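Q: I'm writing a short explainer about GPI inositol-deacylase for a general audience and would like to include a description of its predicted shape. Could you first generate the structure from this sequence?
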Amino acid sequence: MGGFKEHLRLGIIAIVTILGVLLALNQLLKPVPNGCAMTYMYPTYIPIATPANVSSEKYGLFLYHEGWQQIDFAHHLKMLSGVPVLFIPGNGGSYKQVRSLASESFRAYQGGPLEPTFYQEASFVESDGSEELGLPNQYSRMLDWFAVDLEGEHSAMDGRILEEHTEYVVYSIHRILDQYKESQELRIKDGSKEAADALPTSIILVGHSMGGFVARAALIHSHLRKAAVETILTLSSPHQYPPVALQPSLGHFFSHVNGEWKKGYNTDKSHDTFSAAGTRLSNVIVVSIAGGINDYQVRSTLTSLDGIVPPTHGLTLGSSGVNNVWLSMEHQTILWCNQLVVQVSHTLLSIIDPVIGRPFSSTKKRLSVFSKMLDSATSQALSLTRPSDYVHMGSQEKDLFSCPATVQWAHDELDKDLYIKSNVVTVLSMDGRRRWLDIRELGSGGRDHFVLVTNLAPCTGVRVHLWPGKLNSSRVSEVPGSKRIIEVTRKMIPIPAGAAPRQVEPGSQMEQAAPSSFLLLKPDELSGFHFLTISVAPRPTISGRPPPAASMAVGQFFNPKEGERNFSPAMLLHSSYIPKDINLEEDHALVQKMSFSISLGLLPMSLSLQTTGCGIKGSTADKSEEEQNKLCKSRCFPPVVLAWDSASDLRVIPNVYSETIVVDSSPALWGLAKGSEKTNVLLLADPHCSYRVGVSVSISAAASRFILLYSSQIVGFMLSIMFFVLMQQTHAWEVDASVPSVLHSLEMNLRLKAFLLLSCVPVILCVFYSFLAPDQLSSVTSFVPITLLCYLVANGLVILVVFVSKWIFYLLAVLHVLLKRRWQAWESTFSSSFVNQILRFSSSFNSTKIIKGNTNVIVALITIPLVCFVHPAIGLSILLLSHAIHAHSSLSSVLAANFRSQAQRKDACPTSAKSFSDSQLETFNYRHGVFILHLFATLMFVPSLVAWLQRIGMGQNFPWFIDSVLCVGLILHGLFGSKPNINYVSFSLPGFRSNGWELELSHMYLIAGYYSFMISMSLAPYKAFYPLAWIGVTGSTWESIEPQIKFNENEEEVDDLAAYAVSNDNSESTNANNASDRESEIKTPSGPVRHLMYPWVFMGKKQLIVISINTLNIV
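A: Of course. Here's the predicted structure. Afterward I'll give you a sentence or two in plain language.
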């Protein structure tokens, strides 16, 4: 029964793990719609000559040129006078990926700065004073785009490749600056008018993926010229940790670069402050743009600059929060998505000082341009309970949210005013009228919040004012300033509009337009005012203009408590199999706020909206559901969802009828920026329609998010689990019990007491540390269960690997035994002198001292040079082969013994505690555990091996020293720790008596498991090599010096024991009769002899004295 329970527990964990992984893969392999427009170009790549003394001849440098006509490369290089920008491709990327950014930058320079976003129907007059918008009228210099050709190498997989890319980027920066000097000298020689242009002194670096990290690594390189780089823009680049943190050298390189950056800004961790003044990075700004939830290769958590670059010099944002983009995109899509590429191109051109034609020298000004052009900061204005940015504005602040003077309406005198008596106001056309809403009347009864949703552009299509009372003049410009009329138009929050409604035929009913912005006013903002006015611009009448799109604006005074709904963890889990339905009747609150106690970055939510009515009585009774939906879509605007938490960018989803809501946050990660336990979702739904809302947790989306967010933790936990397995096996050997199998050890570790001891202790330590360093942990309530769930998933994966490997071992052993028995039967029948001679020769060769006694030495001589001079994965593969051969040999011996008869399987030594078969089975069990541990370690070097194989024939370097050293320690562990010998690393700790507590091998495995568990929670599984190498080096050292130490300690006791035996020669017969009953502890002149570590045999006075490990018998 116990065996059944054991296998049942393991089977349940393995099956659940398999189902979860399959669900995650099914979700991850689905195509992801991105909504991006394609970028088109006419690329030409001009090679930049490389001097002969450059060692990295395999790499290259190119200058991009946009245009379909052929050009003279030499003449084009001679005329270089723009602002240099260097593009660095990422893992496996090409230098040709620069084409989208470079082509749009060229078109942006030709077309001029972006105009403010105006509604296409608005009539406005723009004066010649765009300085108020912070943008120049014309860009002063174009961008010269360079790109490095890194041969498509996989820099995310190997630290050595990353270092070489950094060195070549440093060279490229110097080469580009020198090229401008050479071009100027050629122009001077030719007498060109542009010869006197100032030379650039710095380069803008733009890096994609690992190229962004290479850009930062180049800035701390010792050979980089001073002030050669002052601006870095990274696209979906990891900064906190490597995306695949498996290779020790790669993780070490990341830690080194980030450490140098922290020193460069003088980070004061104790006070959480930064001091960049006077440091080497004081004039460098970094902007990091993440791809968002659709980027499966580099999670947004890794792109954060928190703790590396201070807020005064760095900006981190997601693509879904970038102005005019609002899209999450895949890892490669971020390079060609036209919405983002256009915005980035104009931003880079905007940081150029029009006076000197070079980027602004002020870091504050450069960063403010990036922030203004890219960061929407929409989520900061969405809280319904947080106090607003202003309460009562003074005279100096009254124009803070007013429309700029550069945009004026064609008719300041509006048509007849409309007075709204309902709490809902609707605008269906640009009628040039002002709507008056009485705040005190319509905002009573708890409806003290106001929201306006519209597709009219702020300032040019619609304007909103707050009035202290009804004045005689209807013209805002004629009202005295003392009356405190406040315009709040520019408080409107832009949101991405959905697809424009299509008109099937002229004059037909069309769908309502999707909202493009909304305004939210809270009670403290409305306090002190009597009226709120909504002014709509008049429709322009232009001959030949196509039919305009639908205009829409809906406003409402509402009570936020009517639309608030909280979802507890129990409700979310229950909704995973029974969806939660919410009915919204007509005249419901326009803003529906849903709060989720578990982050939607971990448990994505499936949201569905079905229109059940639209306030048209008698028109829907005889209509089908499809016709009813079409009719309601022409009356109500498409619903919009806005989801965010404190640690993620806002995600806006227009036209929501069935969607999976996911926020780009990573809760329960230790050591990173604080996450959020709570996700807020705002549903903007037209109050004229009624809806049935369905809310449920998407299991497949949750599984995919779990794998994406916590894969590094799971990998590290798998190593810690194997340390705990070896702890169980070595402990059994130390107490002289049977060594359990790997599966049985896993089952013992999953029992309640062992599970709490092995998994909860490191979690408690982390929680305790979080109280000392609060920035290390977001919330205990999410961290503890997620960590334990990762540990269980890691156990499930280990169970699968162990089961498959054990099945393969048994299959090969059975085949080996059967074939051997068949061969022996055939040999006895058809013997051949030639075959017998070959067998005798092979047997004699195998029995030689070189092969038989020095197998470990031979394996060491093969594997250590491979890990030091070729590649670690190759040397470790040889070590795995050695483990597999020994494990196969032991298992084959067990099966061969089981095939024999009962008489043949009896052990030759009647006093032996264990049979030969049992000893071989224990050896196999332990060998199997060591094999699995080393298999996981070897697999961690496989990505690096793939990158190494790609570079064959292109020039190779030796592996990094840290990789080689750790792998040598791992090899020593495999050679000297292949058997759980009780003598292996067993010594008393300093300060304890000789018979006190000793540090056994099982204790070392326990410490290694705890350490691996801790570093896995900090997303650094590669550090698991450290305890593995420590055990290997310690064990091999102790194995070498222990015999001499024990011999010196026991030599005197053995001599005294022999003398004691001689002195009792006269009572020989009595001693012989009582020898069998003598205990293992014998009093000698020097005291009792306890547990001597080695058997020693002495002959004296016709007595054979045998001192064993546990017993002492005189024969």
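A: For your explainer, you could say: The chain has a mean pLDDT of 79.
Q: Perfect, that's easy to follow.
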